[in-house]
Each structure stands twice: as structure tokens, then as C-alpha cells.
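[Discussion] Sanity-checking designs against the backbone

I'm trying to build intuition for which residues belong where. Below is a C-alpha cell string of 337 positions. I'd appreciate it if someone posts a full sequence so I can compare it with mine line by line.
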């Protein structure tokens, strides 16, 4: 990261420490969820590790009071940056009552959370794309200044629904940002077997709007390009496809064993681009983060996750009688099913 980069973006030291703290909190929570999975308390984990820099930078660039967010299953840092708490996330991971997005009836981190303008319906790959485009069309028709942010992995770009969404958004010049977190792996399929191009962003040309490639391990650069794209969308300039090059530092999910298909040296190279390490080095070189501050941030994250784990572990499972709540409207004069 270039020296003094944050000053050109108008970010204060407090902003940077808040961003770093979100990344650390995400890493600690992610590691806890993996441990709980191995204890049989969490059914499945889709790790965010390696994606934190891209997510915190992108969300920081958006207007969190009026934009809409269609996230995907690897967006833990994005959700925490929007304001969702570790306790709420752990209630979801452990399928406990009180989970606010789906009543703990969906894949962890999925559902809808209007308070934080999160609309994330399922973990079917690419399924959020056309819904996000519909929301952007609605915003345009209403002359609402909302910009829609939809994120996905590189594997989603092989889905037909993905192409339909981008084509429609380009034709109608919709206020939407397509945010690809390209970690070069679609489960066990490497990028060169997914597409015959080096960058996903190239595809934007076919739909008539800009495509931008950015280093996803650099939160400040991600913030910069996302901010520019959001301003363009809000002023009527239409969509942008942002491709953040990130690293997947864990297997695809807790059900996966990536040692069967991923070369060991590929993972070692990825670890050298750990976004938390890179951001910490930048903050220390700028005199913004001291060793004692860094230790305090990790200690505070650990304590918050410990407390959230204890609460979620003791929470009851949802009442089975509520299984079908919210699935159908209840006709007047009748009791719900």
C-alpha cells in the first residue's frame, strides 16, 4: 500500500482503526466457528478468511443508511461491518432461536435483515443477482438515491442468471455495483477451468459498462474504486463490475478437504497476501497502530466472541411449531399453520 494513501481518501486514523478492528473481529469469529464445527455444534462453515480486506473496504465506501446489500455466504466481514453482531451470527451458525435473519432456518448468515438493509435470500450460487437487479430497477423507477451492492464469488460468474442480471442492468443503466470476490477457486475448480479470460471484469464490456480490477487484499484501494463506482451509479451513470482479487486461505467449506486438489505452494503464496497482515503493516508504518493497540484489538475481539459463544451455546433451538411461520400469508379469520 502506498504511503499516506488513507489521507488521499479522506480517512482519519480512527476510521482506519475501526476498519482494522472489524477485520480482526471477523478473523477471530471465523476461527471460533470452525472450532465449533469440529465440536459438532455448527453444521457448516463457508470461511471469510482472506476476503476481509475487500469486504471492509467495499462496505466502508457505501452509504449504509440508504443503500441495499445483497451479500453471499462468504461475506462475514461485510455483515459485521454493516452492524450485525457476533452473537447474532453465532445464533445462526448454531441454528439457535433469536437469529434475526431467518429464524435460524437457513444457511448461516442468510435471510433478510431490514435493520441493516441486508437482503440475502439463499446460498444457491448466483441466486441473489436477479433479485438485486430488480431492487436497482425499483430504485430507479422511484427516483430513490439508493445504490444496490451485490457480491458473489468467481464461480457465480459461470451461472446463466449472473449474465442475465448484468445484461439487464446494462440495458437499463441501473444503479448497481456487481462486486466479485475472485479467490481463483470455485469449490475445487481453478479459475482457468472456469473461464478463458484472465479477469472477470473484462466481461463488463459485453454489457456496456465499466469493469474494474482491484487488489482485494488492499482495503483502501477497494474503498477507492467502490466509492467511485457508487458515486457514478448514484448520479445516473449506471452499473460497474468490480473484481476484487482476494485469497481463499481455508478450504471451500468445512465439508471440503482442499489438500486433494490444491497445490501446497498455491496456498503458501496466498498466505503471503493475508489482508490483515498487510493492513497491520500499513497502519504501523503510518504510526497509527502501536503494538499495544494491536494487542488490545485482538484481546477485545476475543472477549466479544467468547461472550457471544457462551450466549449462543446456551440459547434454545427454535420452537418446532414456528417452522412454517412467514412462509405463507394467513387468510383473514383463520389461524396460521
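Best answer:
Here's mine. Compare freely.
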Amino acid at each position: 500500500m502506498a504511503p499516506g494513501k488513507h489521507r488521499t481518501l479522506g480517512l482519519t486514523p480512527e476510521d482506519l482503526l475501526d476498519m482494522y478492528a472489524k477485520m480482526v473481529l471477523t478473523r477471530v469469529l471465523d476461527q471460533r466457528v470452525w472450532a465449533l464445527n469440529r465440536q459438532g455444534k455448527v453444521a457448516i462453515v463457508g470461511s471469510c478468511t482472506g476476503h476481509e480486506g475487500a469486504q471492509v473496504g467495499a462496505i466502508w465506501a457505501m452509504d449504509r443508511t440508504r443503500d441495499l446489500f445483497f451479500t453471499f455466504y462468504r461475506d462475514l466481514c461485510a455483515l459485521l461491518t454493516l452492524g450485525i453482531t457476533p452473537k447474532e451470527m453465532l445464533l445462526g451458525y448454531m441454528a439457535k432461536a433469536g437469529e434475526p435473519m431467518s429464524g435460524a432456518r437457513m444457511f448461516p448468515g442468510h435471510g433478510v435483515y431490514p435493520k441493516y438493509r441486508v437482503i440475502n435470500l439463499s446460498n444457491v450460487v448466483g441466486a441473489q443477482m436477479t433479485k438485486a437487479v430488480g431492487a436497482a430497477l425499483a430504485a430507479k423507477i422511484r427516483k430513490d438515491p439508493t445504490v444496490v451492492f451485490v457480491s458473489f464469488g468467481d464461480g457465480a460468474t459461470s451461472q446463466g442468471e449472473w449474465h442475465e442480471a448484468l445484461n439487464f442492468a446494462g440495458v437499463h443503466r441501473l444503479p448497481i455495483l456487481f462486486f466479485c470476490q475472485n479467490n481463483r477457486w470455485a469449490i475445487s475448480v481453478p479459475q482457468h477451468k472456469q473461464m478463458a479470460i484472465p479477469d472477470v471484469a473484462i466481461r463488463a464490456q459485453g454489457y456496456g459498462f465499466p469493469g474494474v480490477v482491484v487488489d482485494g487484499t488492499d482495503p483502501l484501494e477497494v474503498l477507492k474504486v467502490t466509492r467511485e463506482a457508487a458515486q457514478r451509479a448514484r448520479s445516473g451513470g449506471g452499473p460497474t463490475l468490480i473484481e476484487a482479487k482476494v485469497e481463499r486461505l481455508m478450504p471451500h467449506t468445512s465439508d471440503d478437504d482442499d489438500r486433494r486438489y490444491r497445490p501446497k505452494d498455491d496456498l503458501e503464496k496466498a498466505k503471503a497476501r493475508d489482508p490483515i497482515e498487510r493492513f497491520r503493516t500499513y497502519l504501523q508504518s503510518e504510526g497509527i497502530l502501536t503494538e499495544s493497540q494491536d494487542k488490545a484489538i485482538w484481546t477485545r475481539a476475543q472477549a466479544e466472541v467468547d461472550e457471544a459463544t457462551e450466549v449462543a451455546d446456551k440459547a434454545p433451538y427454535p420452537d418446532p411449531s414456528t417452522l412454517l411461520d412467514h412462509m405463507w400469508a394467513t387468510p383473514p379469520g383463520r389461524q396460521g399453520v
